[in-house]
Amino acid sequence: MAEASARAHPNIALVKYWGKRDADLVLPVAGSLSLTLDEFPTTTTVRLDPAAVADSFTLGGVAQQGTQLSRVTEFLDVVRELADSDVRAAVTSISEIPTDAGLASSAAGFAALAAAAAAAYGLDLDQRALSRLARRGSGSATRSVIPGLAVWHAGDDEGSFAEAVDGPELRMVTVTLSRTPKAVSSREAMVRTARTSPFFPAWVTSTEETLQEALEACAQGDVERLGHLTELHAHRMHAVIESCDPPIRYLSPTSLEVFDEVARMREAGRRCYATADAGANVVVLTTPEDAEHVAAELSVHGETRVVRPGPGVELISRTESA
Ligand code: PMV
């Protein structure tokens, strides 16, 4: 009976992924760019169980049912097809981030699950193949396979993977404002945005342009340019989300206060740029020199933490027992 464990970290997008071109294959409408963090890991163990009739999924010691379980089962079906297996598995996962609070728990979760499941089912995947596989669980997981800065190419099934990008030395300051699950899942909200926002086509074309500019800024080590594009693109993503029908708003009044405070610190000479994913929490892109100051200033709004670029997904163990 094979068992494997893997660990992955969340990533925060500087150029956001929002919208699928193909929902089954999880192909994005445009490419994106992110930084994998070195905090808040998810550790997942997959144990094959030939006697089981169904998969099971335990998160933080609690047996999961409904959507959480069916997403894991659907993902394992992709792995089973690749491995030509019909054996069910017991999945246990420990996450150090609050699930569904907008800090990309699904990215770390599916990157760890992809590596653990691939190893347990005996697949020998290189980094690119693992990134493509993680994509099938959750789009943002494509990038958590990769350490540090990662670009996710839009591509077709073969060409839609993430890879490492060289760039300036960066830090992120996480500002945790909300631990409550978001009202509308990013999956559902993406579909609604694509179907109902009149701005969606402009979002798609401008995202590809922003990505090219951001990649140039990385190559030049230009923190100001990369930071400017990061904050701009966060505003654009939230604008397109807010323009769908019925509207969805992830940012809270406190999130906007943090954005304003970050702009004030920037005017005072600090290099800091705010962004937020599908939730109220704000993450600030900054430099090693400015990170502690930024974290201290923002701690009146919420719990802050200085985070460094982190590793890609790591296989911790693989065992085979009779
Ligand atoms: O991977 P998903 O389906 O949870 O999508 C997350 C999308 C954002 O986090 C909002 C943006 C991004 O690029 O990570």
Automatic annotation (TrEMBL):
Pfam families to which the protein is assigned, alphabetical: MDD_C (PF18376), MVD-like_N (PF22700)
Per UniProt, residues of the Mvd1 C-terminal domain are 177-298
* Name of the protein: diphosphomevalonate decarboxylase
Residue ranges that the Swiss-Prot or TrEMBL entry lists as coiled coil? none
Task: Look up and give the organism this protein is from.
Answer: Brachybacterium alimentarium
One of this protein's GO BP terms?
isopentenyl diphosphate biosynthetic process, mevalonate pathway
Q: Please give the InterPro entries that the UniProt record associates with this protein.
A: GHMP_kinase_C_sf, Mev_decarb, Mev_diP_decarb, MVD-like_N, Mvd1_C, Ribosomal_Su5_D2-typ_SF, Ribsml_uS5_D2-typ_fold_subgr
- State which Enzyme Commission number(s) the record gives: 4.1.1.33
Query: GO CC terms on record?
Result: cytosol
Q: Which family does it belong to?
A: Belongs to the diphosphomevalonate decarboxylase family.
User: Where would I find the Diphosphomevalonate decarboxylase-like N-terminal domain in this sequence?
Assistant: 8-158
* Signal sequence annotation: none
